[in-house]
Specification:
single chain, alpha/beta, Carbamate kinase, 6-stranded mixed beta sheet, two-stranded parallel ribbon, 38% helix
């Protein structure tokens, strides 16, 4: 393929208001997709754009306890509601990417994968590879999972991008890096939204993860996908394949465009330590 492939995650807190059910941050979404478009016009990059569910599926997921599996007769309604809610937000993201001039296409994870005990067991990934060949943007998202063990589960965007990265790693579409866009500058020693003393951690490796793990606090708003610890652990696993991740603040105009173009941006880099390589 030749060109650089970046897996991009747009956090649920960034693209929705997590404190208000079913509320997008539409102006932020419009700016982010414009930055994606401009970066791709200025640099030859391939993209997979994954996104969190934010205030869309998290409400139903919490109500029906979907992450626990099929626990009662209402769990089936939960599966349907969570999937429908997640896909509604996905349609908005895809719609805005198309409006910005990109040929983007939704990838429904619940329809192309099977989970086992909360993790993706298998996923049909050929459509993503074909879309990348067409220079289109596949847009997967955090979704409900059909789970062989629990009946159902929540598949976070981290779980989805982790699976895609590890699977593509073995093909000619090996990802070069992952960019994670959130609402703060990276990973901090405490929640920077609540603690002004919180300090940015510029780099996380397998060598300092234990120390960093002691700092990691829960995200703001409802989150049924395991919070920040889960996110960092997934990115560290991918780092061991030689795929670096960068966590940046998507609320700052220009950050995403710079990160996609490989320019310097304030944030946290997650990479393998020299011992792992």
């Amino acid at each position: 393929m030749g060109k650089q492939l970046i897996l991009l995650k747009l956090g649920g807190s960034l693209i929705t208001d997590k404190t208000k059910p079913y509320t997008t941050n539409l102006q932020v979404i419009k700016r982010l997709v414009r930055e994606i478009r401009e970066a791709r016009e200025e640099k030859d990059i391939s993209l997979v754009v994954g996104h969190g569910g934010g205030s869309f599926p998290h409400v139903s997921a919490k109500k029906y306890q979907t992450h626990k599996g099929i626990i009662n007769k209402d769990s089936y309604k939960g599966i349907a509601k969570v999937q429908n809610d997640a896909s509604k937000l996905n349609r908005i993201i895809v719609d805005e990417l198309i409006n910005a001039g990109e040929n983007a296409m939704s990838i429904q994870i619940s329809a192309c994968s099977i989970a086992e005990d909360g993790k993706i067991k298998e996923m049909f990934i050929e459509p993503i590879k074909l879309l990348l060949n067409y220079n289109m943007i596949p847009v997967p998202y955090g979704d409900v999972g059909l789970d062989l063990e629990r009946g159902c589960c929540i598949l976070s965007t981290e779980e989805v991008l982790d699976y895609i990265a590890k699977t593509l790693h073995k093909t000619e579409f090996k990802p070069d890096k992952i960019v994670v866009c959130g609402i703060v500058d990276g990973i901090f020693t405490a929640d920077p939204l609540k603690n002004p003393e919180a300090k940015l951690i510029p780099e996380i490796t397998t060598e300092n993860i234990k120390e960093v793990g002691n700092y990691l606090a829960g995200s703001s708003g409802i989150d049924v996908t395991g919070g920040m610890v889960h996110k960092v652990e997934k990115l560290l696993e991918i780092a061991k394949l030689g795929i670096e991740s960068q966590i940046i603040n998507g609320l700052i105009e220009g950050n995403l465009k710079k990160a996609l173009k490989g320019e310097k941006v304030k944030g946290t880099v997650i990479r393998a330590s020299t011992n792992d390589e």
